[in-house]
Amino acid sequence: MSASLSGPAGVDVDTGRLDGASRVRVFTVLAVIVLYTEIAPLQFTMVGAALQKMAKSFPTVGANINWAVIILGLIGASATPLLGKASDIWGKKKLFLLCGVLFLAGCVLDATTTNWTLFLVGRGLQALAIASQFISYGLIRDLLPRKYIPLSLGIVGAGLGFSGVIAPFISGVLIDHYDWPAMFWFLAAFTLVLTPLVILVVPESPLRVKQRIDPFGAVMLSGGALLILLYLDNGQTWGWLRPSALAYVIGGVALLVGFFVVELRVAQPIMDMKLLLNPKVSVVLLMTFFGIGLTAVQPVALGYMSQTPDQDHLREGVVDGVVAQTHQMTGQNLPASLVEVAFDPGYTYGNGFSMVQYAVHLGIWAGVMGMIVGPLAGALTRRIGARTPAIIGLALLAVAALGYTVASYSWPVYLLISALGGIAFGFIYAAVPNLIVEAVPAEQQGISTGMLGVVQNIGTSAAVAVMTAMLNANPVKAHLNVAGHRSDQVIPQVFADHGYHLSFVFVLVTTIIGLIIALFMRHGRTPTTGGAAGDGLIADAAAGVGDGIVAVGETPATGTEVTAGA
Fold first, then answer.
1. Closest residue by Cα to residue 299 from 153, 182, 167
2. Which of 401, 431, 488, 561 could be 390's S-S partner, Cβ–Cβ 3.0 to 4.6 Å?
């Protein structure tokens, strides 16, 4: 049995809600949806922690290996609103599955290439899976009984623990015993197994919006984001104030401003700017953009720092390399005692962990905390609203960022800080989708969560891009003295403490900005309703409340026709 929402002028729009279904049926549908959405965080967790190991296959890219992560936010930001809107038009389940199929193709490409350009193409295809999480918000809103929606959104945000808890072990075993391409074969197999389950278990929502898609907006959005991220990533190398470097950021800003102007004028924009400018949406998006940088920086930084050898072991490795190179070039056995190595500057971190050791000591615990807290925070929104959990999450995230900036490196200390960050992640990723679902009517769910995807992906990508710039600007050099012959060399993928410190300071500042925005936010102070509040906007408008009376078959915000069925 399905339920419907009250559409414009009293027209009932069937959403396929499973009000008459058993709990087993409801939670089976939820479990399959959540597992399929985990392909996006799964790839981030696995690849982000493995960047240092992967860098050996791409020796010419240096710290720009981080673009294996940055490109996810770039492509995800530009594609998510497009795919979100397409899900409103053609069906959420169809686009949900399309994201998985494209992700599968990207995994196969990355598993079979060592060409950096092709590898990034594969990562771009995998980035499209990011939209699956935001499309799933609409599926859950349409299909699940209202009372389960806040809890379910918390579960989607935190996951079932697969990406945060199990993934570090899987990637560790695969990389330690095979090599990094094995990760992508695993991700491909994971998606291949789950796709038939989605087809068989998850029903399609019959809710449709009759609109056309304007791809021009997506091109301007992605182009503007790309230019700005390139500037943030390479500004230190190019020179932040050089005209040729400033051209990137000026061009990026111009494209984004143009995108905003065009979207205000076109009849059917990819993003509804009236919706975007509604404080219930815009304030949440602004808070998210500034507040979540640490969610991306933490796993990448901890993966680098813990897997780097300490200075003594690195020095031994450099000496062994010089001895081996000398033997290869001259055939002579150079005594190690004739090789002197001094690092400039030195660094205080480094454990030389394998991937499995990283998982056990650091990698899984933020995921464990998020898995526990996310559903609880989602349920909490039904009692007190989503604003307070958002404030709690951002406050804890700011404390975690502060901890990274002031604490000397020690993996037990960083473990405690990362676990605190995991608790914060659980609160934030439960609160934010509930805030958006409460703010918009159902027929604008896909595009509104697409907007959330844009700011979330650009926010995390910008944080990683800034981190990359800070690390590139603070390399560790080895001063070599080989039997009186002196030379210098940069140690790849090893960076000075100052680079990490600046990265953590940056995300501390941005997180505090997000927290301040949350404190002044008016939205989300009442218990969440599973989207009933947002759907009520239509009925209110039809009755002459709020924005005024609308024509039959139109929504107050966009004038788009809403229908049931394919």
1. 167
2. 431
Strands of 345-424, DSSP E? none
Instruction: Report the pLDDT value the prediction gives residue 535, as an integer from 0 to 100.
Output: 62
Question: Two tokens at 241?
Answer: 């104030």
Q: Which amino acid is at 78?
A: S
Q: Which residues in the chain come in under a pLDDT of 50?
A: 1-12, 537-560, 565-566
**How much is the pLDDT for 554?**
36
Question: How confident is the model at residue 536, as a pLDDT?
Answer: 56
411-425 core/surface letters (b: 16 or more CB in 10 A; e: else): beebbebbbbbbbbb
Angle (nearest 5°) at CA 292 between 411 and 528: 120
- Angle subtended at Cα 86 by Cα 265 and Cα 192, rounded to the nearest 5 degrees: 150
Say what the pLDDT of residue 496 is: 94
Q: For residue 324, give both structure tokens.
A: 């081996």
Tokens 């993966």: give the residue: 303
CB of 401 within 8 A of CB of 508? Answer: yes
CA separation for the pair 360, 1 (Å, rounded): 46
**Nearest alpha carbon to residue 156 among 41, 73, 46, 74:** 41
Angle value at C-alpha 390, between 385 and 394, nearest 5 degrees: 160
Alpha-carbon span 444 to 278, nearest angstrom:
13
As a whole number of angstroms, the longest Cα–Cα distance in the chain is 91
428 and 456 Cβ atoms separated by less than 8 Å? no
Report DSSP letters for 77-141, one per residue. Answer: HHHHHHHHHHHHHH-HHHHHHHHHHHHHHHHHHHHT---HHHHHHHHHHHHTTHHHHHHHHHHHH
Sign of the CA dihedral 67, 73, 78, 84? Answer: positive
319 contacts 336 by C-beta, under 8 angstroms: yes
pLDDT of res. 427: 94
Q: What pLDDT, in 10s, does the model give residues 412-467?
A: 999 999 999 999 999 998 899 899 988 887 777 777 777 787 788 788 888 988 89
